[in-house]
Amino acid sequence: MLINLVPEFLDVLRSPHGESAYRHYHDTHRLILDAYWRNYVLDPDSAPAAEVVRHALRADRRDLMALLAQVDVESVVEEAVERARATLRLDRAFDVYLMVGMGAANAGELVVNGRGAIFVALEHFTGKVNPDTYGLGLSPALLPLWVAHELAHVVRYTSPVSRSDIARLVAEAHGYFDCWEVGSRATLREQLVNEGLAVHAAQAVAPGAATADYFGYPRRQFQRLRELDAFLQRAVRHELPQSGLGLRLRYLSGGVSATARLVSGRVIPERTGYYLGWRMTEAIVAERGIAEALRASATDCQAAEERAGGVRTA
């Protein structure tokens, strides 16, 4: 189901009682907005949350208004969802939220009460960088890529035939996805495979974009990762069976210090894990197709990679 929260947020901006209007808006959609805040922003009931809200209400939104006037965002997203439904063989009910975010992720995945959901924060897709909203300035033409990417995660976490370890962790959390818990407990291999498969899914659902765009990388960074390919695959090998939040931050997060990204004597580019995961899952996608690959275990992906490389296993 497509749920558009943008009109209600704009009503908040127009209200003479902005902060209280925002609290009412948040309370109305607390189930999903609490999950969004806790996974991608911070604890919504903490003291710093109030300043985040105040900043968001003061922000210059002219770029967002121009986007909404020029692009039928709902239609773009609905078309992407239908392509993803067919290509990824979505087999559980899910929701897609269009929203104005708090300057955090441009898009993301959630599971609440066992139901998968994705959100798209439109302030990042106006085509103009906006320091007020922390908007990334992504083109609205990239919306289908990110919709497909996040729906791939929903498949991996909620499909009844998924063999992903993250699906197990979500089930153990009573049907709730907690990115910090997953980041702490899932192996690095599982987390890289998870993101790599989502990149392949976006390529399958929304072909034709520049390769770097599927990762959210600048072109120069993608070229640098290509140059470092052999080194990266060797360097990450001993860490793949390990787990810990530090590994997630090193390989999958932006804004991480150079020291934290030091691997085998080199500082690796931010979010290198998306590229590594893409490379690690090329074999299983070629072997089984994207829909089946999304439901495979990380061990299955490793076995396919080894077969493709001519490695014999017992």
Radius of gyration: 19 Å
**Count of alpha and pi helical runs:** 17
Briefly note the structural class of the backbone. alpha/beta
Helical residues, percent:
55-70%
- How many extended strands? 8
Overview of this structure, please?
With 314 residues, the protein is of the alpha/beta class. The chain has 2 domains: 1-177, no CATH class; 178-314, no CATH class. It contains 17 helices and 8 strands. The chain has helices at 6-14, 18-28, 30-40, 47-58, 62-70, 73-88, 143-158, 165-172, 179-185, 188-205, 219-227, 229-236, 245-252, 272-280, 282-288, 290-294, 298-308, and strands at residues 2-4, 94-99, 107-112, 115-121, 129-130, 135-136, 262-263, 266-267. It has a 4-stranded mixed β-sheet, sandwiched between helices. A two-stranded antiparallel sheet has the order 5-6. It has a two-stranded antiparallel sheet with strand order 7-8. The longest helix is centred in the middle third of the chain and has 18 residues, at 188-205.
